[in-house]
Amino acid sequence: MLKQDSSSSSTNTIPEVTSAISTNVSREEYVIRGGDVVRIQVSREDDLSGDFTVLQGGVIAHPLLGRVVIGGMTVIEAERSLTAALKKDYLVNPRVLVQVRSSVARRVVVLGEVKQPGIYELAIGDRFTLLQAVAKAGGFTDTASIDKVTIVRKGKDGEHVIKVKVSDLLSGQGGGDIELKPDDVIRIPQTIF
What we know:
Mean pLDDT is 84; it is low at 1-24. The protein has two domains: 37-102, wza like fold, CATH 3.30.1950; 106-188, Outer membrane lipoprotein wza domain like (Outer membrane lipoprotein wza fold like), CATH 3.10.560.10. A five-stranded mixed β-sheet has the order 7-6-10-8-9. A three-stranded antiparallel β-sheet has the order 2-1-5, covered by helices on one side. It is elongated. By secondary structure, it is of the alpha+beta class. Helix content is 15%, strand content 28%. It has helices at 75-89, 130-136, 166-171, and strands spanning 37-42, 50-53, 59-62, 66-69, 96-102, 106-112, 118-122, 149-155, 158-164, 185-188.
């Protein structure tokens, strides 16, 4: 197999790229998923670079590596994984850049005491907050317990529950509205009389 020495000088380097990921979702946080389109740039290897659709199993079909799983990885982890795979048998010191070109819609779920509970889409790059989600869901019902709202957020180390007193947010005492992340589940319980 061909190995290319990347130590020779060349002006053909990976250009700086403005990521399609919003500034509030970093390359270390954004998790690649099925349906995303990623651009993979391998320095000085145009035939190994291009746009790839991530299939539902998290797999892309790379022209040299074949089927490669990058779904479930952050952008940085995907770069490291692809770099290691190319370095193992094919290239010397490959430089790989992964950029999310487009993303499937992300969702938040609003359950409980709102007028229109349901699943609400988040476009990548859009800032979406708890109060915006409640407003999009038609607002609280008359029986909503607004001081016992929870947000269930999945992270790499499991689920985290964030307890929110919405009355504090509305009065300015809560430190500001809470920005939602993809797949957050918002639960608004009913007031117990």
